[in-house]
Amino acid sequence: MGRRSRRRGETAPAPAPRSRPDRRAAEREARPRAPWHPFPLVELSVLAGLVLLVWGLLRSDDESGRVLLVCGMALASLGGLETALREHFGGHRSHALLLAALPAVLTAGVLFFARAPRLAVPLAAAAVLAAAFAALRRAFRRRS
Question: Is residue 4 part of a domain?
């Protein structure tokens, strides 16, 4: 056996922790602010949507409960959509696919309720999704 380079009882000094800037804090600072900035409109919208969702789940057996569920989903989704729109068109982060899904879903809904042929609904939605994605991607590249 060879000698040890350290004596027993001595420990090697621990490496100094690297100072790394908080990435999330930097991202929060760089995000574009809403026009109503000091007022937490998006957060209140999402909170109200969650309350309506829970209330709708508790009353899901009657018609008013289903209406509360739909309103809760719509209100909570609007909060997320607003944030995605602001970040996307502010050049902060691309949300092209998420934003392109909105016109695609609306197109599918209109065609479904207009009683279009079953094959036309997903094909039209896919075409709208692809076109909207390409346009939104170009818009983000111009902004960033």
Answer: no
